[in-house]
């Protein structure tokens, strides 16, 4: 299978590229970055994609600076909604699978249990609204070949493009520099390793999962405080982790207080998805933050 990855220099795109090279189903992978295709130029999307032959297109691109896009909604909807619709149309013309990466921010936080794919959506910010429209446009344009993979709270080796790293690295840096981190404890989500997300997405492709929406996250849930506490604990840093409310860290964009996703649908097809603490342990070891004797890699 020939796979084309857009946004290949980001956290998820980088791990997808790495996983593709180890998968027997992938005969060829083409990884495109912004210099190869500028998806903010909607007219160029179809033209660029027409130059490539592929059986599956994985779109990891997005305008994902959640607070910034509150003031740049037009650009956000072009990149996160209109561009995916054009990608879906290009895939339809080639009869290729279209896998579009979306977000837990399509939900509004009112649930009392992990969200499943069929739950109603109600985004609270521009980013979530633009990503939800992208889902809907792609599925409407190419219902028989589009797959939506919702991810959440990603951490990966490459770091987040445009954000200067990821939450794990930020917590480690602050803990080492200041000896204390203050972290929000009233927002609950699904911490997710891009390595595990990439494996599941490729497994869904390999096993020809039906078109539609899938939640691709690590098992379990945590508040950002609980996530930070585990990061500091596993890394063995003698720092204090203090819980605070989101009111103490006001942001331009409203975040849902609860956006935990159930991965049961994806796991039924792709197999068990590891718990986030296990994923964090493997990440810390690969990044050199752990000694081999304390890593998951050394427990086999």
Mind explaining what this structure looks like?
The structure is a single chain. With 300 residues, the protein is α/β, with parallel strands linked by helices. Helices cover 37% and strands 16% of the residues. It contains 9 helices and 12 strands. It has helices spanning 11-20, 42-49, 73-94, 126-141, 167-178, 194-206, 224-235, 264-270, 276-286, and strands at residues 2-6, 28-32, 56-59, 97-103, 146-151, 154-155, 180-184, 188-189, 192-193, 212-215, 222-223, 240-244. α3 (73-94) runs parallel beside α4, α5 packs across α7 (224-235) and α7 (224-235) packs across α9 (276-286). The longest helix has 22 residues, at 73-94. The chain starts with a strand and ends in a 14-residue tail after the last helix. Mean pLDDT is 91; it is low at 293-300.
Structural class: alpha/beta
Largest sheet: 6 strands, parallel
What's the β-strand tally? Answer: 12
Helix tally? 9
Beta percentage is: 15-25%
List the helices and strands and how they pair.
Blueprint: E1 2-6, H1 11-20, E2 28-32, H2 42-49, E3 56-59, H3 73-94, E4 97-103, H4 126-141, E5 146-151, E6 154-155, H5 167-178, E7 180-184, E8 188-189, E9 192-193, H6 194-206, E10 212-215, E11 222-223, H7 224-235, E12 240-244, H8 264-270, H9 276-286
Parallel strand pairs: 1-2, 1-3, 3-4, 4-5, 5-10, 6-9, 7-12
Antiparallel strand pairs: 8-11
